[in-house]
Design brief:
Layout: E1 2-7, H1 13-22, E2 26-31, H2 35-38, H3 42-45, E3 53-56, E4 59-61, H4 66-74, H5 89-116, H6 124-144, H7 157-171, H8 180-190, H9 193-205
């Protein structure tokens, strides 16, 4: 049985979206944020106290871009992954990792110093530096992005990775860095039934 620990609209949304895209049965636990401070036993689930945490039997995954790829490759075959035999395999892996390591990471530092820190510990100048860092890397992603999707001219788990980074930016005050092209890209992704089911699932389980 697949079991996902998730916080509303956090990076664990990638895992939830992927589960819905794969149409896999799962048990969902929506936790208060930040879970390491507000959910008793969180460090038993993940020693870092962060989400996502996905259990597949005895296997445990805690990285939000590893989970979609794991699901696609373990429970496929599915067109949601790009295989090594396909020409866009490199682009797929690149965008899969880019969504978290390059696009989401600077946003989390921005949020730390702009929102989550105590008022006396906030550093607007640092927050702005990381916001601009995100913006420059999103522009680079835009130059690499295909006409419709991240890789292989079809929707894949790489689009979940990048799409979530845009979703986060649009929800935390970084709209100025999201171009019309990237807004249109995410607007297409939001129309997917699995995305809409994931939104509904986290609401009903909260």
């Amino acid at each position: 049985m697949l079991t996902l620990y998730h916080c509303h609209n956090a990076r664990s949304f990638r895992a939830l979206w992927a589960l819905e895209e794969m149409d896999l049965p799962y048990e969902l636990h929506v936790l208060p944020f930040p879970p390491r401070k507000r959910h008793e036993g969180m460090h038993d689930l993940n020693p870092l106290g962060t989400i996502p945490v996905l259990f597949d039997g005895d296997a445990r995954l805690t990285e939000s871009v590893a989970i979609p790829h794991y699901l696609a490759t373990k429970y496929g075959p599915t067109d949601l992954a790009v295989g090594p035999h396909e020409p866009d395999y490199a682009a797929y892996l690149n965008f899969l990792v880019m969504g978290e390591a390059t696009l989401t990471f600077p946003q989390t530092i921005h949020l730390r110093y702009q929102v989550f820190a105590r008022p006396e510990d906030r550093r607007p100048e640092i927050a702005r530096d990381y916001a601009e860092w995100f913006g420059s890397r999103l522009r680079n992603a835009e130059t690499l992005l295909g006409a419709n999707y991240a890789a292989a001219n079809r929707f894949t788990m790489a689009d979940i990775s990048v799409g979530y980074a845009i979703m986060l930016a649009l929800s935390v005050g970084l709209e100025e860095f999201v171009s019309d092209l990237m807004r249109a890209y995410f607007a297409r992704l939001k129309q997917r039934p699995a995305f809409q089911r994931a939104i509904a699932a986290q609401g009903s389980a909260a």
